[in-house]
TrEMBL record:
Residues 1-20, 118-171, 551-573 are annotated as: Disordered. Pfam families: zf-MYND. This is MYND-type domain-containing protein. The keyword Cell inner membrane does not apply. InterPro entries: Znf_MYND. Residues 146-159 have a biased composition (Gly residues).
């Protein structure tokens, strides 16, 4: 096998001596075919099992993986496509046979180990029963007792043999896991191209080859499975391993649309063709199930958890930025998967198989959003470790990444909730997607993309729902919202205008009667948060009042409209200045009056004196941000953030593109954003790009 691998790796069909290279490559394909025929021959079964027992299993499986990875992905220079597909199928069957043999060998090792363990336990139990039987010993009994030393020696030998067996079993499993990593790193990124190559062949050979390729790869992925259905990636401790795992999860996601297309096309076959396809159609479904549940969900959660641990040990800024980059690509592709599931994927017959559900609503949105949320959380930690710097007006690289991350994330959450509601409109299950993790992500979005509150009423509504959904069971969402609102004027105004800010005071009053230092600390924390939000609200009022006083109304409207808009701004400026003055006075008076009072009394005073003025000021601030020129500025800012994405359409469902794909075309109007397809370009235009295209073009010309 090593010789076949070396020959395949050294073969160069694209060399200048095309005829000679083609001849050599075809000779190597013949070797692969011979190897496959030998491997599948029944007479080799016992010898293969014996070889795996006696030697390192990695010596056989590792070359098989390399052999499959060495085959080219495109026919050229006399190499026929069907011959190349046959090579991929044959190499996959060699790997498939070795994987099954490896799994069987490990099972046999563990079964034998268990038998020896049971035998030792039975022997010990038998010895104890003889020792407590009582009565006089006969000479024969005494002789047996004297000879017991030989029994102990046998037991010691058995223990040594068992220890050796356990070591071999452990070594065998480690080699199996190493082979699994090779499959993921060498073969998984090539799978889509291999399937595309097979699909280009004529029927019925095409479907049989595709089914065989899917089956072979699904079996190869089972190398990660141990003890029944446990998916075990083994120890992951380095940034390199996390990055490799993130890339594997991306490759798994890119395969899903192709597998769905294969599965759906087979479902639509004529009755005559369906008879032989029926036995094959489970292969794409099984592969999709393994890719989604193991190589995406479990691998993503594991990579996020390990990245969080690594970040806690202290990473350099460069290492944190590098690790964040790989996880950002995975998060972006995960959001695309959400949009694919909500559109084209939702109509696929593959979905019930992929999620393991047979009901009318096969998509487990709770699990999907939880996985995407775990990625967002650790990326935030890594970007902060990389050094945020800058501001929203002059963002650093990490700050811009944070904006892109949260803009994409909130769009995915909104789509998932809408999809859940459309399936169960009379159910409250959709609001259960607003877990604490989801709520924190939304509040963080309001901090890094505050413009969304001005242009997207759905996002503002979602923020309010995320607090109210858990109001009866947990105060954590409100506390998290208030924490972020101390640095976000728009979020502070939303909490004030809706009255949700007063919830901090109500909680303090409820805690006040219980007494105790812990309870008192909780109450004080809530009052401090309230004071922080009030400070942000006051500063926002000062900034907006200055902006209204010093700048004219914008826009391209005619003179009458401009005059009307200016009158509206003047009126708003007067109202806001008066409301700001009232709030400053009320808040100062409440703070003075509350000093001698206990926490509960202080909270009640704040509620009575300061909250009405805060509600009024918050509503006026929201009114300012809804002015036409403010909405236009917010839309332009969001468009600049979206321009940093591979596809600027926030609901792009494409999974088969990579970051920076050269196929993504610049918008012909602004030359500032890219779209992966005409469909995404049209959808983005309708969603609002038409309102900012001209402004983006103007800014582009100034650079």
């Amino acid at each position: 096998m090593e010789e076949a691998v070396r020959g395949m790796e050294e073969a160069d069909p694209g060399s200048s001596d095309a005829a000679s290279a083609t001849h050599e490559f075809n000779r190597q394909l013949a070797c692969v075919r011979w190897l496959k025929d030998c491997m599948l021959h029944p007479s080799l079964e016992a010898g293969l099992s014996g070889a795996l027992h006696a030697e390192s299993s990695g010596h056989l499986v590792e070359p098989a993986v390399r052999l499959a990875a060495a085959l080219p992905l495109r026919a050229s220079h006399g190499i026929m496509g069907d011959a190349l597909v046959y090579g991929h199928v044959a190499a996959g069957q060699v790997l498939w046979k070795l994987v099954l043999a490896m799994r069987l060998t490990l099972a046999e090792m563990r079964a034998a180990e268990q038998l020896r363990s049971d035998a030792r336990a039975a022997q010990k139990d038998g010895g104890r029963s003889q020792g407590v039987s009582g009565g006089e010993q006969s000479p024969a009994d005494i002789d047996d007792g004297v000879q017991g030393g030989s029994g102990c020696s046998d037991e010691g030998g058995s223990g040594a043999a068992s220890s050796t067996s356990r070591k071999r079993s452990s070594q065998h499993f480690e080699e199996r896991r190493a082979a699994a990593w090779q499959v993921v790193q060498l073969l998984l990124p090539r799978m889509e191209a291999v399937l595309c190559l097979a699909q280009a062949q004529a029927e019925p050979r095409c479907s049989l080859d595709v089914a065989c390729i899917c089956q072979n790869f699904a079996v190869a992925l089972s190398l990660f499975v141990r003890d029944g259905n446990t998916f075990d990636l083994g120890p992951i401790t380095s940034e390199e391993q996390v990055s490799a795992l993130a890339e594997a999860a991306c490759a798994a996601l890119r395969l899903l649309p192709r597998l769905a297309q294969i599965h759906d096309s087979w479902q639509q076959q004529t009755p005559a063709a369906a008879s032989w396809i029926a036995d094959q159609q489970g292969a794409p479904a099984l592969l999709a199930f393994l890719l989604f549940n193991n190589m995406f969900c479990m691998a993503s959660v594991r990579s996020a958890a390990v990245a969080k641990q690594i970040c806690g040990t202290g990473l350099s800024a460069a290492a944190a930025a590098s690790l964040a980059g790989g996880l950002l690509r995975l998060h972006n592709l995960s959001c695309c998967m959400v949009h694919w599931l909500a559109t084209a994927g939702r109509r696929s017959t593959l979905l019930p198989e992929m999620f393991g559900e047979k009901e009318e609503a096969p998509i487990d949105w709770h699990r999907v959003i939880a996985v995407v949320g775990s990625l967002r959380s650790v990326i935030c930690l890594l970007l902060k470790a990389a050094g945020m710097g800058g501001t929203s007006a002059s963002p650093s690289s990490s700050w811009r990444h944070m904006e892109v991350l949260h803009q994409a994330h909130q769009e995915a959450v909104q789509v998932a909730i809408a999809a859940e509601i459309s399936l169960q409109p009379s159910s409250a299950d959709a609001t259960s997607l607003l877990t604490r993790c989801s709520a924190i992500a939304l509040f963080s979005t309001a901090k890094y993309c505050p413009q969304l509150l001005a242009v997207d009423s759905g996002f503002a509504s979602l923020l309010v729902q995320s607090i109210l959904a858990q109001a009866g069971s947990s105060s954590a969402p409100l506390l998290e919202a208030a924490y972020e609102a101390r640095d976000s004027a728009q979020l502070a105004a939303l909490l004030a205008a809706t009255g949700l800010l007063g919830g901090l005071l109500e909680e303090t009053r409820a805690l006040g009667g219980d007494g105790g230092s812990t309870v008192e600390k909780k109450g004080m924390d809530r009052l401090l948060l309230f004071a922080g939000v009030m400070l942000q609200l006051e500063q926002a009022g000062l900034d907006v009042a200055a902006a209204l006083d010093g700048s004219p109304a914008g826009g391209r409207s005619d003179a009458d409209q401009q005059q009307q808009q200016q009158q509206q701004r003047d009126a708003l400026q007067k109202e806001l200045q008066a409301a700001l003055t009232r709030m400053q006075a009320a808040w100062a008076e409440a703070q003075r009056g509350g000093q001698p009072l206990p926490l509960a009394g202080r909270a009640e005073l704040y509620q009575r004196e300061a909250m009405p003025a805060a509600i009024e000021l918050g509503a006026l601030l929201q009114q300012y941000w809804s002015l036409p020129e403010q909405v236009a500025a917010a839309e332009l800012k969001l468009a600049e953030i979206a321009a940093c994405r591979p596809c600027a359409h926030l609901r792009c469902p494409r999974l088969d593109t990579t970051s920076g794909d050269s196929r993504n075309k610049l918008c012909a109007g602004c030359r500032a954003v890219r779209f992966c397809s005409p469909a995404c370009s049209k959808a983005a235009w309708k969603a609002g790009h038409k309102r900012v295209c001209g402004a983006l073009a103007a800014k582009q010309q100034l650079r």
